[in-house]
Amino acid sequence: MLPLFSSFSLKGIPVKNRVIMPPMVCPHYVGDDGIVSRRNLDHYRERAEGGAGIIVTEATAVTKIGRLSSYQLGIWSDDHIAGLSQIPLIVKSFGAVSLIQIHHAGLVAPEAVTDEPMGPSANPKDPRSRSLTIEEIREIKGDFIAGAIRARKAGFDGVQIHGAHGYLISQFASTYYNRREDEYGGSFEGRMRLAVEVIEGIREACGDSFLIAYRMGANSPTLEDGIEIARYLETKPIDMLDVSHGGSLVSLPRPPQDFDYNWICFSGTEVKKTVNVPVGVVNEIRTPERANWLIENGKADFVSIGRPMLADPHWVTKAQHHEEMIVSCVSCKPRCKWYVDSTECPALQIRMKERLI
Ligand SMILES: Cc1cc2nc3c(=O)[nH]c(=O)nc-3n(C[C@H](O)[C@H](O)[C@H](O)COP(=O)(O)O)c2cc1C
After folding, report:
1. Among 24, 245, 330, 340, which residue has the most ligand 1 atoms within 8 Å of its CB, making it the best to mutate?
2. CB 282 within 8 A of CB 306
3. Domain for residue 334, yes or no?
C-alpha cells in the first residue's frame, strides 16, 4: 500500500488515510441566513464517499458581520446547529474525520456584508475600515469559542481555525496588517494573542478530545515569520497545523530548483521540518503520485487535495484502486469556477457528458 493511504492516529482518533479535503466555500449553495442547504449536504456526501481521511467543512462565519460574502455558511447562532449536524453525520458514516473551519473575514469583509470592515488596524487602502477596540476583540474571541461549542454540539470531531489567507486571525498575526501597540499588537506574542486566546478558550470549553486544527499562513509576511508562528503554536493546545499562505504577496518563499512543487507547498514542508505537531501541506498537489511523494519522504503528515476533489469527488478511491480515470482539475483562470457557479466547472461538465454523474 502506498504511504498516502496509510492510516494515522490524530490524538487517538483514527484517520484512514493521509488525504484531507480542505475547506472550500460554495457561496452559491447558501442563503443570507447561512443555514446548510440540501446542495451542501449532497456536496459533502459525494466527497466523503470519495474516500478522503479528513473532510474540513468550508469557512463558516462566527459572526454575521465577519462574513467573506453574504452567502457563506454560518455558525453564529444556535439556529445553525440542526443543519450543520447533518454534515458530520454524513461524513462519519463514510469513515472520515469531520472538522469545520471557523472564520472571520475582518478587514476584507465586503461592502455587501458591512459598511465598516474591522481588523487589528485600519486598512490604508480601504477608507471604510477601522481598527477594533479591545472590547470588540474580546467579543470576537467569544464568537470563535461559541462557534466551536456549536460545532461540537453539531457532532464535528473538531474545528479548524482559519488563521490564513489574510483573514482576521492572520491579519492580527502579520506585521503587514497589525500596527497596534497595545496587548494585541506590538510584540510577536501580542500579534499572536488573539489566536492563542481562541485556541485556549476552545480547548477549555470543548475538552481534550475535541480536535483543534489551525490553518496558518506560511508567509506572514515572510516564511521565517511563518515558522516562528508554527513553533509558537505547537506549544499551545492544538492537534495539527495546515500550512497555506498568509494572503499578502509581499514575500514569496523560493523553493530550491530541485523541489518540484510550488512555494505554498514548499513552505508547508519547511514548517514540517521544525515542529512535532502533525502538519498538512496544500496547493497544486494535483496527482496521487505527487501527493504520495510528500508523505513517503516525510515532507508532510497529510496532503490537502482541494480543487481536484471539486473536479472529481472520488479522487481518493480512484487513486487508491486505479479502477477509473480521475477527472482532472484544469485550474481555471483567473479563478476556480466554484467560487461563483460550480455548474461551469469544466470537469463537472466532462463528468456529466460521460454520465459519471
Ligand atoms: C472554490 C474554493 C473555495 C475555497 N474556500 C476556502 C475556504 O473556505 N477556506 C480556506 O481556508 N481555503 C479555501 N480555499 C483554498 C483551498 O482550501 C486550497 O487551499 C486551495 O484551493 C489550494 O489547494 P488546491 O490547489 O489543492 O486546490 C478555497 C479554494 C477554492 C478553489
Report:
1. 24
2. yes
3. no
**Number of domain units in the chain:** 1
Is the shortest distance between the CB of 43 and ligand 1 below 6 Å?
no
CATH number, domain of 24, equals 3.20.20.70
Q: What is the CA radius of gyration of the chain?
A: 19
Which pLDDT score, from 0 to 100, does residue 1 have? 85
Give the C-alpha separation, 342 to 25, whole Å.
11
Tell me how far the alpha carbon of residue 204 lies from the centroid of ligand 1, in angstroms: 29
pLDDT digits (tens, 9 = 90+) for 7-38: 999 999 999 999 999 999 998 899 999 999 99
**At 55, is the secondary structure helix, strand, or coil?**
strand
Residue 357 falls inside a structural domain: no
How confident is the model over 84-100, as pLDDT tens digits? 999 999 999 999 999 99
The pLDDT value given to residue 52:
98
DSSP 152-195: HHHT-SEEEEEE-TTSHHHHHH-TTT----STTSSSHHHHHHHH
**Within-domain flag for 342:** no
* CA 99/CA 57 separation, integer angstroms: 6
Domain of 43 in residue numbering reads as 3-327
User: What's CA 48's distance to the chain center, in Å?
Assistant: 17
Residue 234 falls inside a structural domain: yes
Residue closest to 300 by CA, chosen among 8, 1, 14, 23: 8
- Minimum CA distance residue for ligand 1 atom 22: 283
CA dist., res. 156 & res. 73, Å (int): 15
CA distance 328 to 350: 10
